[in-house]
């Protein structure tokens, strides 16, 4: 695989994994049906606190992908390592969402019931029926994919093409290989004008240069 293709694949993988993780936050992770004598309401959430963490990690990963596009060799390793940490963060946050889906209903139930203590809120949630979707698992997979993309970045970074340079030294050096000769020619031409000669005349020009 060409160096350019390696770079494109790494950046694209990071973008897709981060985008997939953030996409899950637009979908319901769990639903709570609360039907008791005191409360009658249905709730849904998209990750709760875990979703907030995933959103932050996802945005940071998108920024990392953009930075990789222009980063030098050393910073590729730095960004790759940070991206790996972001992938682990998404994986851990998604795991928390999968392991404790009731936690995502805390804020809504607290606001609805007026009960502020966590134990009371948990007791109310326990009276309802909770159903979960596959989106937390998708977020978990996205976190793993992001970590793998970061590993790919670290492994292949040394083979990526170098960034383009703004200036080409060869072109600047070839503009004037003998600047002192050109400067002498200008002085000689001014001297010829002062003497009343035409510096554009070929005979005079040869005389001046001699």
From TrEMBL:
Transmembrane segments: 50-70, 77-98, 137-157
Keyword field contains Transit peptide: no
UniProt-listed Pfam families: Trp_oprn_chp
Lipid biosynthesis listed as a keyword: no
Positions of the UniProt region annotated as Disordered: 175-210
Alphabetical keyword list: Membrane, Transmembrane, Transmembrane helix
Taxonomic superkingdom: Bacteria
Compositionally skewed regions (Basic and acidic residues) per UniProt: 175-188
UniProt-recorded name of the protein: Trp biosynthesis-associated membrane protein
Species in which this protein is naturally found: Gulosibacter chungangensis
